[in-house]
Amino acid sequence: MKIAVCIKRVPDTETRIKIAGTTKIDETGVKFIPNPYDEFAVEAALQLKQKAGGEIVAVSLGPDSAQETIRTALAMGADRGLHLKTDGQPYDTLAVAHALAAELKGYDVILLGKMAIDDYNHAMGPALAELLNLPCVSAVTALTIDGTKGTAEREVEGGVEVLSFPLPAVITTDKGLNKPRLPTLPGIMAAKKKPMESKPAALGATHVTVRSLALPPERPAGRIIGEGAAAVPELIRLLQTEAKVL
Amino acid sequence: MILAFAESRGTALRKAAFEAVTAARELGDDVHAIVVGPSGIAAQASQLDTSRVLVAEHAAFTQYNPEATAALVAERVKTGGYRAVFFVSTAQGRDLAPRVAAKLGAAFAPDVTSVATNGEEIVVTHPVYSGKAIATLVLTGAPAVIAARPSSFPPARTDSASPSVEAIAPVGDPSASRVVVTELRTGGGAKLDVSEAAIVVSGGRGLKGPEHFTLVEDLAASFGNAAVGASRAVVDAGWRPHSDQVGQTGKVVSPDLYVAVGISGAIQHLAGMRTAKTIVAINRDKDAPIFKIADYGIVGDAFEIVPALAAAVREARRSG
Lengths: 246, 320
Fold this sequence. Notes:
Chain A is of the alpha/beta class. Chain A has helices at 36-52, 66-76, 93-103, 124-132, 185-193, 232-241, and strands spanning 2-6, 9-11, 19-20, 24-25, 32-34, 55-62, 80-85, 109-113, 136-146, 149-156, 159-166, 169-173, 196-200, 208-214, 224-227. In chain A, the strands form three sheets. Chain A has a nine-stranded mixed sheet, sandwiched between helices. Chain A starts with a strand and ends in a 5-residue tail after the last helix. The mean pLDDT of chain A is 96. By secondary structure, chain B is α/β, with parallel strands linked by helices. Chain B has two domains: 2-176, 3-Layer(aba) Sandwich (Rossmann fold); 199-319, Rossmann fold (3-Layer(aba) Sandwich). Chain B contains eight helices and 18 strands. In chain B, the strands form four sheets. Chain B has a seven-stranded parallel sheet, sandwiched between helices. In chain B, helix 2 crosses helix 3 and helix 4 (213-222) runs parallel beside helix 8 (302-319). The radius of gyration of chain B is 21 Å and the shape is elongated. The mean pLDDT of chain B is 95. The interface between A and B is large, with 87 and 103 residues. Strand 15 of chain A pairs parallel with strand 18 (296-299) of chain B, so a sheet runs across the interface.
């Protein structure tokens, strides 16, 4: 089975965001991690390979630093890396989807996280699937693949959808699907020797550009209204008269 | 003309349908809606405050049918000459909108919190890094595919609209879709989702064990229609399902009231709830970061405060 898994390098969830200039964040001192949702995709790929055999290609689009993220996937157990090189991280989902689609023809399964925690777009999987004319199931929390048939579950508001689909397919992963393994020391050593190809990304046309990036409006400073159950009547009064939510 | 995708489940429209109409109006007065569902859904059209409603009824639209719905919406946008089509970034909208955008080769912006025009450009705002920053995006070229962030635009629901209703045919055979939703499990009760609720009561590690979430559930019940949320720590510990998690790797919520019980307020949690209109925090540690953004904080033992608060809320609602 030919499996591709797409991963993105993103700032750690505990990062305090500062703005540099008008459209970028200040990366000084920021720790970067593989997008957590993409780690579920890597784990799903590894489990699939264990069951069905085949090869896993870890793909990342971005500047040279994307190769670090690919190495993490290789250390987890992916077989080879494909780096699609750009200057900086492009924002436009569809422009990036075109570059991935150009390289991801002929795979049985393409896995990626349901969203990247930096752009928060939740869009790459379905967009990529359309460009490749493949079936897509997004944000799955359960996945079974049997031969060329798949079934999956995804959370919707107040329920769970059960889906069936044929391979080849694009599948995006949500938290709850699995527990990604940590790279082992031998895995990290082995990853250094695994093949990594780097080539320029063939980005599609850009229709979306970032004009500015700003911090959200500050909330008014917090206020402690009291201690213990004795403060409850005052809280009720404020919720009724000031916040007007009761 | 602007098109709004009116999300439905079975033969009922969802709150997102009315939010999409409101968001679409930001771009123009002449808004049409498109509804895709099983036989009988056309009867819902009078709730949509638009000049025209396009309705596609087919048995294969009883459950969400991603491929046939995307094909139909994309075709209507193209043939109808719409400037833009609006969705809401719900589970369904997040799956559907990027498909439509890819089919149209359109500018695409999901999870937007505001929409405006500037000459030929459409300018939207979109929270990034889970709301730790706000990006202002410029969309060029027509059409544009835009999805509103849930609960960011007031739902334009009405009982008395009189749009012209036009029955439209699916593109191809919707029964032939490769991806099929075979079942929708709602677990009997209609559990309110944290992303849709007007009031969210969340619990964290301060509750000391999963069995104590009954306190949080009871406080949520005291408000009437509140959803129960959870911090990442307790979801990772297996106390609560991931669907309840509020934060950067969970759901981003904007309720009218958010009550945080025993949650210290890690950056990734604050990112998920900082846009709530009113925040109440109950925590034993007066230096917990959650108190920096809480409108009303109470320091102390949740096991003592929460039951007292639930009783007081019930009393207030009875007499109010």
